[in-house]
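Inputs:
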Amino acid sequence: MNNADEFIKEIKINGKSEFCIKTALKNMGITVPQSVIIDNIPEKLDMSYPVVLKVSDESILHKSDVGGVSISIRTFEELKARLVKMKKLFPKSQFMVEEMVEEGIEIIVGISRDKVFGLSIMLGMGGTMTEIYHDVTFRLIPVNRYDCDRMIDEVSIGKFTENGFRGHKIDRNALIEFLIKISSIGEAGGNLIDQMDLNPVKINGSKIFVLDAKIMGEL
Amino acid sequence: MFEQLVSPKSVAVVGASENPMKIGYAIMKNLVEGKYGGEIYPVNRSAETILNMKSYSSLKDIRNSVDLCVIAVPASLSLEVVREAIQCNIPFIVLIPGGFSETGEQGKQLEENIMSIIKNSGTRLIGPNTVGVYFPHSNLNTALTPPDRVSFPKPGSISFISQSGALGLLTMDSISDLGIGISAFINLGNRIDVDEIELIKYFKNDPKTKSIAVYLESVNNGREFYETLKEVNRVKPIVVLKSGRTASSAKAASLHTGALGTDDRIFNGMLRQAGVARAYNEVELIDYARVLSYSPLPDGKNVAIVTTAGGVGVITVDYISATEHGMGMNIASLSAETKEKIKASIISFGSAENPVDLTADGSIEAYDSVLSALQEDDNVNIIVSYALPQTPKMNMGIVDVISKYIHAKKPVIVGVIGSKLGTDLIREFERRQIPAFPSIERVVNSVRALYDYSEFRRGEMNE
């Protein structure tokens, strides 16, 4: 399994596209959905449906705002049709086909830089909806297990640990390990990272999937 | 490091004056009326004597060693005085005047000039744009406010560092009324040299300081500030009041001190990470500093309440246990043994359940038995004891009773409501360094601050 220094090296070499970040995260032992990069409609695709189709292009930061994300694709035929449409919008780009993770609670994990305090890690409930919930908490990087434990209880994510809620459960230890890994990326990246958004991240028990990932900085 | 600042053997006041409209007069008055015991050297170009003391025409004219030089001349004249103080090897300067970076480009230039000569010298500087310093254990008061306007606290165990001068003076004035003491007050002002980080580090090892209260509008060296808080807070509890929480207040703060803003959520997370209590106003700042300075740390969050007023007890239960408008802590379930002991010592229609209600019959002796029983109950971690003046049997003797338990294992936080006997009670509790607060809300907020700090210390130990 790679460490955070190797993660940074990988991003430097391969770039900051979603696919590259996710591959580098996977090499660190962080779970990401199964995915492939395609240029054109393939002969066949060995994936379990539903899948998501996304434009894969480092220059497009907010893919869904520009029509670069298509979700809940249930058959190969449907995928082909959607790809034709998307290629018209982004004729020069590559595309990523990714298995959809349906079960789980959406959260957000991020790194951001403050002029005075440097890098901090953020944990929030609600994934892409976090801005509405205002249910977020921060710590300076690096964090230890105790910091992460406290963070989990400072947002409503803590309520899903222990016995869970209506069948949804979050494994506290798995989330702590995850947060410490992300913190270590900040530590290893140092001045090279300005921001990293893992949003949404889906948690189901001890399974933590990073569904979307962005990095900004001088990497 | 700051010994000569905190207890100087001699103080020179440049710009000392007999004109009551001048700052140099107020500072001299505060030094004299504060009964400062060291040498005082007034410096004034034209006066022979000031307040019956021989006046000197310049710092060089003094010819004895000076530990602290207070400069109370206008900004435009201050550069020369700073230079002279450096030449005289004076270790500390308090540079009072405003008119520097907070006023614009010209002031900023002047400030930078002073900064550069200080940096290359052995002299350290507080300010500029400061109301001064106050060290009650050394009877040293260089504040610029006339002593007939505001009171200064007596010697105590809280060191108070404030970026804002007026807020500091007013807070000291307010707490003086209840006899609350402090061990130091330093107004940083534009903090071109000495900053909060160095002072917090110094107070860590200052035997007179038991807790540190800090008011800030901005932080310059974020990482060092955080590391310092975390390191010192393990040994001496720190409370921070940080303004500029919203975009509009951050703008006001920036106009006030020219500060750089941080997302308040990050600042908050940083404080939590360092285990530092956050106050949201000047009352909380000193309340938390007091409870952290005076109390032993609790082993958990189960609170027992003793009262002679049912309503006060119930509202306290609400505040302790509610998660909204409350602390989210636990009301202790008393053991059968404890309840038996309590029943035996209170009137039959009182309540031996938590909150323990002694009713209007509650006597000092009953308090004694109940507090003793609660101290021995393993289900109880923190005791809130009200001392309410409305009942016939309440008197100053309650202070002796509660004093017996204040150094026991479990913290006792006292609530007093009222203004006659009530105020006397709080003053007497304060004199014995027993944390007593004049409202239910202030009691429970302080309970929470104490519990949070104990959690931090436990977490640190396990890490």
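Chain A has a mean pLDDT of 94. Flag for discussion at group meeting.
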